[in-house]
Amino acid sequence: MLTSYAEEEVRAEVKIDPQPLGFTDGYRVVEVESGEEVPVRNHRFSLRLRKHGVGEFRLLPR
Question: How many domains does the chain have?
């Protein structure tokens, strides 16, 4: 979960280290609110956060 305290909409970049999380065979990121898979590149993805908003995502094994 990410929380924004910004005064305007922002884009947050997230970097994942999959090894300590046990994702040795790959993973996917799903946005909780929409259920849509989020594109991941080089273990990084971004989410748009509204002013004072919250972004939730799940990491799921492939």
Answer: 1
Q: Which domain holds residue 53?
A: 2-61
pLDDT tens digits for 24-53? 899 999 999 899 999 999 999 998 888 988
Is residue 29 within 8 A of residue 59, CB to CB? The reply is yes
Percent of the chain with pLDDT over 70: 100
CA-to-CA separations, 15 to 2, 7, 8, 29, 43, in angstroms, rounded: 13, 23, 22, 11, 6
Question: What's the N-to-C CA distance of the chain in angstroms?
Answer: 21
